[in-house]
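Anyone up for a design puzzle?
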């Protein structure tokens, strides 16, 4: 089903007070309870074409611009000139401006409508006010990229009979310029009400301020407020589009420019529609919307993703804690939800540490650590992850502090600890929650008598548990893997990854009995 954006256009009749612009904020405060209070709609709107130009301002005498009895009249006379009343002679600047307004390349602008008498009447283009910036625009352009549009319903629309303007031009039906004004949008309960029907409290405020205003004139105008597809929020649109009673998908993970949905089965028939709305509502930050097709099963922990909307590229750049990581979501593992955990882990390290990241992926832990610690050894089995890991080291200018390896975790542990050149490793991170505990046996016998003076590293190993007592369960797995019971393990719940399934982090100093064990792996 295609998304019909026009079906979300809604038009509301409202009333507005046209007030002098210099009073609009005062009046906005005084009339607060009577003004339109809709989300994302400002209740002050500009009126096109009545702004005073700074150039004109300088021509005015120092007294109040809006002194209708004197200055404003004189100003109008100066603008409209002697030929239209008893005004003074126009200054050269104003005279040129007047001429420019009277002619254009096609002839007299002022009497252009005379020509129309002999031609069929074209549909009139109407100037409108965008409630956000007051720009003039043409009605047919509005809609696609608009959020909301405020149109003043003109007298012409109200009274078809008095169409003097269509014969002699706009100038002949509008009043003379009377100073810059603003529209204060009134609460919807005042729509289509006459001035007399306004509550006394509003009238009292207007009367009080009317004296201060030069125009001493407030006008009640009818308006049309149009709200477009862009106005409505994601959940409001999805509520309309999806079948009644269906849970509205709201949360999604973002990885750079990619929104990563995790749709339920019931959503799948509507997946493209949902993705389109998510894309529309999260642009420009989001450029691609994907859905996870299947649970993660493979060794590299990559996700099976289906691109539902937007551009198809799954290569993106994520900024995390001031560091930049390039990621190809189709080929490597990335989880933005672990950002807090990575920070917590990092807070355990000091500048004297040497860190070994056994399952480094594209490097979020290794590279963050490298900014803080003395040195990092980072490894991953996935050649593509290693490729991005190397790029990310360079991207963050940390390549001198990180050594990158591409091997199986167990072999990496054995190699790095056997290496004579390896600096003394103080911290080991094992973030492969499904199986990391099962790699712990690789630490058995990593040190020989020659290494006696070496520091015993602290190990951080992650795991999942669905048990009733997840901490106890994971603790048991760690002990079994190390074939050692007498050592202290700090156990911490990281986050609930699914109902009843916890991710945990166990940390402990590698027991001496394990590090110097005579045998290697028991398995
Ligand atoms: C859960 S991800 C964690 C990556 C990284 N630490 C992070 O936070 O984004 C686990 C990583 O281990 C890697 N991996 C899986 N099996 C491995 C193995 N036997 N040896 C080394 N790395 C392995 C995967 O390629 C993946 O990048």
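Challenge accepted. My sequence:
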């Amino acid at each position: 089903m295609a998304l019909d954006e026009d079906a979300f256009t809604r038009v509301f009749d409202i009333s507005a007070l046209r007030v002098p612009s210099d009073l609009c904020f005062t009046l906005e405060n005084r009339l607060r309870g009577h003004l339109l209070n809709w989300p994302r709609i400002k209740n002050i709107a500009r009126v096109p074409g009545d702004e005073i130009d700074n150039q004109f301002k300088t021509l005015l005498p120092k007294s109040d611009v809006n002194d209708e009895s004197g200055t404003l009249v004189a100003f109008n006379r100066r603008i409209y000139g002697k030929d239209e009343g008893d005004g003074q002679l126009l200054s050269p600047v104003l005279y040129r401006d007047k001429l420019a307004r009277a002619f254009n390349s096609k002839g007299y602008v002022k009497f252009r409508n005379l020509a129309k008498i002999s031609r069929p009447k074209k549909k009139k283009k109407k100037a409108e006010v965008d409630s956000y910036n007051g720009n003039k625009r043409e009605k047919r352009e509005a809609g696609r990229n608009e959020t909301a549009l405020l149109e003043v319903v003109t007298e012409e629309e109200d009274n078809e009979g008095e169409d003097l303007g269509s014969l002699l031009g706009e100038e002949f039906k509008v009043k003379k310029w009377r100073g810059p004004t603003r529209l204060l949008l009134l609460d919807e309960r005042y729509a289509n009400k006459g001035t007399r029907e306004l509550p006394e409290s509003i009238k009292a405020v207007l009367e009080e301020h009317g004296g201060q205003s030069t125009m001493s004139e407030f006008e009640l105008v009818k308006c049309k407020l149009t709200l477009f597809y862009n106005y409505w929020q994601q959940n409001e649109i999805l509520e309309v589009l999806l079948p009644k009673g269906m849970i509205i998908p709201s949360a999604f993970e973002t990885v750079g420019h990619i929104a990563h949905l995790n749709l339920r089965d019931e959503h799948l028939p509507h997946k493209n529609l949902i993705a389109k709305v998510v894309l529309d509502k999260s642009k420009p930050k989001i450029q691609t919307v994907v859905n996870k097709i299947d649970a993660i099963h493979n060794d590299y922990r990559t996700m099976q993703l289906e691109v539902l909307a937007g551009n198809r590229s799954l290569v993106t750049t994520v900024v995390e804690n001031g560091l930049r990581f390039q990621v190809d979501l189709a080929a490597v593992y990335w989880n933005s939800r672990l950002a807090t955990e990575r920070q917590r882990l990092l807070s355990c390290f000091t500048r004297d540490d040497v860190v070994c990241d056994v399952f480094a992926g594209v490097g979020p832990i290794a590279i963050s650590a490298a900014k803080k610690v003395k040195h990092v050894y980072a490894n991953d089995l996935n050649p593509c992850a290693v490729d991005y890991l190397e790029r990310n080291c360079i991207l963050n200018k940390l390549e001198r502090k990180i050594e990158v390896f591409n091997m199986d975790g167990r072999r990496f542990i054995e190699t790095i600890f056997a290496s004579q050149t390896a600096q003394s490793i103080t911290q080991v991170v094992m973030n492969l929650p499904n199986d990391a505990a099962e790699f712990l046996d690789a630490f058995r016998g990593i040190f020989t008598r020659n290494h006696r003076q070496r520091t015993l590293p602290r190990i951080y190993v992650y795991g999942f548990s669905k048990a009733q007592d997840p901490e106890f369960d994971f603790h048991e797995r760690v002990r079994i893997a190390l074939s050692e019971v007498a050592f202290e393990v700090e156990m911490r719940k990281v986050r609930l990854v699914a109902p009843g399934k916890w991710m945990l982090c166990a940390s402990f100093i590698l027991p001496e009995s394990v590090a110097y064990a005579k045998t290697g792996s028991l398995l």
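A detail worth pointing out: The two ends are 56 Å apart (CA to CA).
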